[in-house]
Amino acid sequence: MEKDALRELTKKSDLRGLLHAGSFLLIYLATVGAALYFFLEQQWVAMVIAAYIHSMFHGFVGMGAAVHELSHGTAFRTKWLNEFFYRLFAFLTWNSHFHFKESHRRHHMNTGFMALDKEITPEPVGITRAQVIGWFTFDWALFKKIMWTDLNHALGNTDVDFFFWCPLLSRKNVKTKKLVSWARTLFVGHAILLGLFIYFQLWILIPTVTFGYFFATFLVHGCEIQQHSGLARDVPDWRVIAYTADFGPLMSFLYWNMNYHVEHHMYAGVPFYNLRRLHKVLEPDMPKPIRGYLRGLKHVLAVKRRQNADPGYRYMPEFPETANPPKMA
Fold first, then answer.
1. DSSP string computed for 161-178
2. Could you please report the per-residue DSSP string of 225-286?
């Protein structure tokens, strides 16, 4: 890329950041408010529908979208604004912002090199029926991963990890104390909220605010498996170890444009709201994007089925004639 073009694309905007993060916060409050309203009016069917819609959105507040992008510190020009929303969204989803920032930095440094990148699940790995049922109801696997790790961190055992680092940081690392302190903040903060919900008998706020992140996770999981699933490993070309997809305006909004995942890895300093523009600049040298969220989901599931029969199979994206050949070694 030309330096001037890259300089323009890496410009941060407090307004763009506030519009997106602020709208996420408003949607969160509105869906919780709707569920609470129907609870108070004893309209049980409407309450369940509102709570379910809330949880479908709640998944995007966490590390699958909002927490992920805010960890890069590119959403806002003003640092404290980025940190405010980063910590707020991490709290609302039981995520550790200290851990994720360090973990994700390593993921970007060594993307797809399996001896070094522990955020990517080793493949081939299938999707079980129990997982799918959990995605549409209560995601027990996600609940166990998040809560068990947070609990261990709160008790001072930082050897337990959200991904596969085990441990991410040594116990002597200065960041480890912050990791433990934040985990304790999560439990104390949510315990206070839980106590208030019980005292005022606002029972619907327990599954929406306290545990809303763990229900109806199918939409965000559908996005996450379209990042690196079934692609090459241990090669130095981001174009063949990550996907680029055109999700359309709604899913791109919810996913903070992370469907442009190749572009995000190539230029991690470019704010999420400029990734579509970045894609247009890089398009002659990029794989042809998958068109549509559902089509991309269908593609990944087909790749996984093929891997079940042939564990060594890796999907190779289709490149236009204008593209440089993939660098595989």
1. -SSS-SSSS-TTSHHHHH
2. TTTTTTB--S-S-GGGTS-BEE--HHHHHHTTTTTBHHHHHHTTTS-GGGHHHHHHHHGGGS
Distance (Å, whole) CA 321 – CA 61: 39
Say how many domains are in the chain.
1
Token pair of 207 as six digits = 């599954």
Query: Is 149 among the domain residues?
Result: yes
pLDDT in tens, 51-60: 999 999 999 9
275 occurs within a structural domain: no
Residue 329's SS3 state is coil
For residue 132, tell me if it sits in a domain.
yes
Burial (CB count <10 Å: 0-12, 13-18, 19+), residue 251? buried
3-state percent breakdown (helix, strand, coil) of the chain, nearest 5: 60, 5, 40
pLDDT tens profile 196-252: 999 999 999 999 999 999 999 999 999 999 999 999 999 999 999 999 999 999 999
Domain range for residue 165?
10-226
Q: What is the mean pLDDT of the chain?
A: 95
Answer whether 213's CB lies under 8 Å from 62's CB.
yes
